[in-house]
Amino acid sequence: MNRDLRKTVIAGNWKMNSLPSETGAFADALLPLIPGFEKWCEVVICAPFVMLPSAVLAFGDTGVKVGAQNVSQHAQGAYTGEVSAAQLCDSHTQYVIIGHSERREYYGETDKTVNEKTLAALKTSLIPIVCVGETLEQRENGVTFDLVAMQTKIALKGVSKEELSRIVIAYEPVWAIGTGKTATPEDAGEVCKAIREVISGLYGKASADGVSILYGGSMNDKNARDLLAQPDIDGGLIGGASLKPEAFAVIVNAANQ
Ligand code: PGA
């Protein structure tokens, strides 16, 4: 982390877990465990669409932000089952995860749709959390850096310098997601640094230095502190551990270093 240059973000990705009726109890359990968090990080809970209103209600004006896990690339119209960026904003959602590897793997999202969704989110006040990351096969073939560079470049196509300042990137090695296998802090930090260099090549060093780059993939209450100590890791996108208020609170507090 480097709090002088950019914000730290600890974002929970609840995926398709929990229930709307359980959101209040989660907030009640979490909030007393993270007093003063706003001094060192932004805390975001990314919930399923149907749970956004209950999450907004539960977190109210506590400072915890609410995010969605997907958004349509289209502004409006005949797209049954989709949710637009404007609809998310109007529901007081402030963040949105874009291009999570599960969306890429199971729902056919591509670098192109990730770019379109990023542009659609940026047309509103939403803050996109754009996910990039390699599979195990890609890592073993030595193409991690090329792959994340390509994903990052395509995701940012058509994004202005001003818009870049609102974007968060999440580096999530696919082989580490939900597997209990974490990249070492050094390996994760190195890829995050490489992503920042790609952004620097596109927008200049000052702009790149301002972008928060998160690590995701089995981040938990045990390994968060070491991962967050890396200078280019500016927070975490946390799946499993974000469902447990105690574990998530430890991660939020580990960002206070
Ligand atoms: P995990 O998920 O923490 O359960 O590995 C991270 C993510 O998919 O965002």
Number of strands: 8
Mean model confidence by pLDDT: 97
The assigned structural class equals alpha/beta
User: What proportion of the residues form beta strands (DSSP E)?
Assistant: 5-15%
> Largest sheet at a glance?
8 strands, parallel, barrel
Overall 3D shape: globular
Number of helices: 12
Uncertain stretches of 5 or more adjacent residues? none
Give the N-to-C terminal Cα separation: 9 Å
Helix content range of the residues, please?
A: 25-40%
Q: Trace the largest sheet across and list its strands.
A: 1-2-3-4-5-6-7-8
Each distinct ligand: 2-phosphoglycolic acid
SSE string, helix = H, strand = E? EHEHEHEHHEHHHEHHEHEH
The Cα radius of gyration reads 17 Å
Please, could you describe this protein's structure?
This protein is of the alpha/beta class. The protein is built from 12 helices and 8 strands. The protein has helices at 23-30, 52-59, 85-90, 101-106, 111-122, 136-140, 144-155, 161-164, 185-203, 205-209, 224-228, 245-254, and strands spanning 9-13, 42-46, 65-68, 95-98, 127-132, 168-171, 212-216, 235-238. Strands 1-2-3-4-5-6-7-8 form an 8-stranded parallel barrel, surrounded by 5 helices. Helix 1 packs parallel to helix 2. The model has no long low-confidence stretch (mean pLDDT 97). The structure holds 2-phosphoglycolic acid (PGA). 2-phosphoglycolic acid binds at residues 13, 172, 177-178, 216-219, 237-241.
